[in-house]
Amino acid sequence: MLDWSSRSDAVTSRLDELFGDLPKKLDVPQVADLLGMTKKGVYQWIHQGTIPAYKLGATWIILRDELRDAIASGSNLAQEIASDQHAQDDAEDHAD
Q1: Where are the domains of the chain?
Q2: Of 30, 32, 47, 48, which shows the fewest CB atoms inside 10 Å?
Q3: How much is the pTM?
Q4: What is the rounded distance in angstroms from the CA atom of residue 31 to the CA atom of residue 68?
Q5: Closest to 44 (Cα-Cα) out of 56, 32, 34, 30
Q6: Which CATH number applies to 4-95?
Q7: So which residues are the signal peptide here (predicted)?
């Protein structure tokens, strides 16, 4: 049986390493560089709500921790953990 908790902790730890040295506020070029995307792609994700961001005047600000959390919540590992937990909960409900 897989230990989902330790896998989830490992992903969170890796994200913390990736984001640890970054400033608390990021701009679009920084996010594009971090994610290996174009600035246009980052703007598209901002407008779609994929990347949480705040607009001040003509400038978009992305908060480092919110971006990290958004990436973590979109992880396919997080979905696998949730599915596994639901299956486990269902099995326990039927055992009663």
Answers
A1: 4-95
A2: 48
A3: 0.67
A4: 11
A5: 32
A6: 1.10.10
A7: none
